[in-house]
Specification:
about 230 residues; mainly alpha; 2 domains; two-stranded antiparallel sheet; 8 helices; flat; binds zinc ion
Length: about 230
């Protein structure tokens, strides 16, 4: 599907670094829209829609203060820019600790990748048992990218147990029982993201999934060996 990609004007002071682009199909009617597929969730489950947008586009976990990003968060695509360029947008990386800088830089992702991640997460959310049914245009849009939305086919990216939509119920900042997870925590793109139980995501930590499973396997092997000796 070809998308419109017309520029959407925003009031963000970071707008000059990266224009916001319309994600509706090319030649669409009506207003341009950056997150058209979130319009329905914004009505039925606004905290879920906000979480998808936030997790897809913002960094997490740094002691960050800026009017635009809010505390602890900044747009992931700003973290691609050099320290020098960032200064021009009022972001002073030199004022932050090395550890915080490393954490923020690790969350860097370009705008297109962030848009793909948001789309994939929306598709994923609609697969969950007890999720609302998407309106036909949104379903068609998402299925065009990622295939049929089958209810009851959403699994935790880490432990492979089913994930129910109502796990989002506590979707206040960082407090939901379901979190956005990455197979490789250093790559933020649609082929590498999913949802996971909060506990599973925390357990995985900075490891890739293969590293994490190998780590668990080694532990279990040692535990088994110590029992049998
Ligand atoms: Zn448009
Ligand atoms: Zn899990």
């Amino acid at each position: 599907m070809e998308l419109c990609f017309q520029r959407i004007r925003s009031t963000s002071r970071f707008d000059k670094a990266q224009h916001r682009l319309c994600q509706l199909p090319k030649g669409h009617n009506g207003n341009h829209d950056e997150f058209p597929y979130l319009r329905h969730l914004q009505k039925t489950n606004p905290t879920v829609a906000a979480k998808i947008k936030r997790d897809a586009t913002m960094t997490t976990g740094a002691a960050w203060k800026s009017d635009d990003a809010g505390p602890n968060r900044i747009l992931r695509w700003m973290m691609i820019l050099s320290d020098e360029e960032l200064l021009r947008y009022g972001v002073n990386m030199a004022a932050l600790s090395e550890q915080v800088v490393a954490k923020l830089r690790e969350k860097a992702a370009n705008y297109d990748a962030c848009m793909r991640v948001a789309r994939k997460l929306a598709w994923f959310a609609y697969q969950m048992p007890r999720a609302p049914i998407p309106p036909e245009p949104i379903q068609t849009y998402l299925e065009n990218f990622y295939g049929p939305i089958n209810s009851h086919s959403a699994y935790c990216l880490v432990c492979r147990q089913p994930l129910e939509f109502n796990l989002f119920a506590n979707a206040r900042r960082g407090k939901a029982d379901v979190e956005t997870a990455h197979s490789n925590p250093r790559i933020h793109d649609d082929n590498n993201v999913g949802f996971a139980h909060r506990a599973c995501n925390i357990a995985q930590g900075a490891k890739t999934l293969p590293e994490f499973y190998a780590w668990i396997r080694d532990i279990l092997n040692r535990v088994d060996a110590s029992h049998s000796s």
